[in-house]
Write a structure and sequence with these properties.
The complex is a heterodimer of chains A (317) and B (220). Chain A is an alpha/beta fold and 317 residues long. Chain A has seven helices and seven strands; from the N terminus they run H-E-E-E-E-E-E-E-H-H-H-H-H-H. Classes of the chains: A alpha/beta (317), B mainly alpha (220). At the A-B interface, helix 2 and helix 7 of A face helix 1, helix 2, helix 3, helix 4 and helix 9 of B.
Chain lengths: 317, 220
């Protein structure tokens, strides 16, 4: 009876020990303990972001680990990586090794192999690793964009401030336009509106006044001519006669009319210029719109990407 | 230290993962309302109006009338802070559709109906001020207003005190200083003008002239 119990206990202990050994053995086997491990040596200019035990990754899968880090005679950091035999096929002679420090998480060595058919990497070869820091890269890329955005924002603020400023250029232009339109609708003086310079207007009025005087003068002469009908034609057609005088006056008037014509031409030209700049303004406006939209998009993206920002909540002040 | 850092990093990671992305309208309306406040207090009124209109447009996208009324009440509160009147039509239109006790309490507070203010619903920073307003003792009111920490809330309370009670130069100076420190030109000028009027009423012409010069210097 006692023997039977002892036998059973013995059997149980042996079975348990066997099971434990089998479990440990299986785990160790699955972990690749019995597998052959290749050791490769990589070189880096700096040991920054490198730690022993950091993973070596191919296509997102860990295929090995960094075993040791040593400083070589020439000052470079030698990285020994251990890769189990079943993963050796991913490491070829033309593979590139990149130390990546992601935004969140620990750094890793990424293996990039373009051609899997190229010869395997020999253990004596020491390829150089390149460094890639996501944060630095992102910030470097973002920096000029932010600088641009700052400039554009400053400009836009200036423009908006100008728009809002009652003494600003835009408001001035608007007021002037209003005045012109008011003048147009009241039609108080077309000439004044076109020339807008009261002195010139005065000058033109004076000229017209003179013309009127001359006309009345001519009238009086004509009257005199009428009264002196008996006198000879010499009085009218002669060198000093009335007709040459009228002729002279008309010529004078023609010259003056030419001048007014030129002034009118200028006015037309100015209007054309104005319409040209209107298209420019439209273009500028659409460019500003585009810039503002781009900035908006950028801000939206930044807002979404900054993870630890406090939640916006509209509260009573 | 290391453990602390590790736990801190873990907590940030966990909270970071748990947060939902904020809807765009909320983000945009919040930012625009903040811009409205600063621009209005700074005196850039037209730009401020643009921001406010944008904020309202965004909130209307959600159709949330409570937030909409909060936005209008914010506008009224900013007007009170710079000693200006406000047109409460927009808020009353919202209230006729959907009542909200919190908004109503704040509205009563801004309008000076202090007896109708529900103390429990009023933002906690105004409770001491409300008590002092109800008692009506000048020193207590001034003390309660000055002890508010948030600068905008302090100006709102100061604005209410100036509008509804007898006030001294102490509160006007405190409000002007608060506005000055924050660079709120509009508010600063409003309180300086009140201060000038107070000195003129008290026949303190020297002080009044001094303030007048200061106003001229700042304004342009």
């Amino acid at each position: 009876m006692t023997n039977k119990i002892e036998f059973k206990v013995g059997l149980f202990i042996i079975a348990t020990v066997c099971l434990i050994i089998a479990a440990i053995g299986y785990t160790v086997y699955r972990k690749g303990f019995f597998e052959r491990v290749e050791t490769y040596t990589l070189a880096s200019k700096t040991g920054e972001d490198l730690t022993e035990g950091m993973p070596v990754v191919f296509s997102g899968f860990t295929i090995g680990t960094v075993r040791t880090l040593e400083l070589s005679e020439d000052g470079r950091v030698l990285i020994k990586i251990r890769v189990p035999e079943r993963h050796v096929k991913w490491i070829r002679s033309d593979s590139r090794f990149i130390v990546s420090k992601p935004f969140i998480g620990s750094s890793r060595i990424i293996v990039l192999t373009d051609n899997l058919n190229s010869p395997a990497l020999l253990e004596e070869e020491v390829p150089e690793v390149t460094k890639l820091s996501d944060i630095d890269e992102t910030i470097k890329k973002l920096q000029p964009v932010i600088e641009e955005a700052k400039k554009i924002t400053a400009n836009i603020e200036k423009i908006t401030a100008n728009l809002a400023d009652p003494n600003g250029d835009v408001q001035k232009i608007l007021r002037n336009s209003e005045k012109i339109t008011a003048n147009l609708s009241s039609k108080e003086s077309l000439l004044e509106m076109l020339i807008r310079d009261e002195q010139s207007v005065q000058a033109i009025y004076q000229t017209l006044g003179k013309t009127r005087d001359i006309t009345s003068h001519a009238d009086s002469i004509l009257q005199k001519v009428d009264t002196m009908a008996a006198k000879t034609d010499e009085m009218i057609y002669g060198k000093e006669g009335t007709l040459p005088l009228v002729h002279k006056i008309l010529q004078d008037l023609l010259v003056k009319l030419e001048k007014i014509n030129a002034a009118l031409d200028n006015v037309v030209k100015i209007s054309a210029d104005v319409s040209d700049s209107t298209t420019d303004i439209k273009l500028l406006r659409s460019e500003i719109d585009l810039a503002v939209n781009s900035i908006n998009d950028l801000v939206k993206e930044l807002n979404q990407k900054i993870p630890f920002k406090s939640k916006p909540e509209i509260k009573l002040p | 230290m290391k453990t602390f850092l590790f736990l801190f990093a873990c907590s940030i990671f966990i909270f970071g993962c748990g947060s939902q992305p904020v809807p765009e309208w909320k983000n945009v309306s919040f930012n625009n309302l903040e811009s409205y406040k600063t621009n209005y207090l700074n005196g850039r009124v037209k730009i401020a109006e643009l921001h406010f209109d944008k904020a309202i447009e965004e909130i209307k996208k959600s159709g949330d009338l409570e937030i909409l009324s909060t936005a209008y009440l914010t506008k009224y509160a900013v007007s009170v802070a710079v000693l200006e009147d406000f047109d409460d039509g927009d808020y009353l239109r919202i209230e006729s559709v959907q009542q909200n006790p919190g908004s109503r309490t704040y509205y009563n507070f801004l309008k000076g109906f202090f007896d109708k203010v529900d103390k429990g619903l009023l933002p906690s920073r105004y409770r001491d001020v409300l008590n002092a307003f109800r008692d009506g003792k000048e020193k207590d009111m001034e003390q309660a207003v000055i002890s508010i920490e948030d600068p905008l809330s302090k100006l709102i309370a100061a604005g209410l005190l100036v509008r509804h009670y007898k006030y001294s130069e102490v509160i006007l100076k405190a409000a002007a200083d608060t506005a000055s420190v924050n660079g709120w030109k509009n508010a600063h000028l409003a309180y300086l003008e009140k201060l000038q009027a107070l000195y003129e009423a008290g026949k303190e012409t020297g002080k009044a002239a001094n303030i007048q010069k200061k106003i001229q210097l700042i304004r342009n």
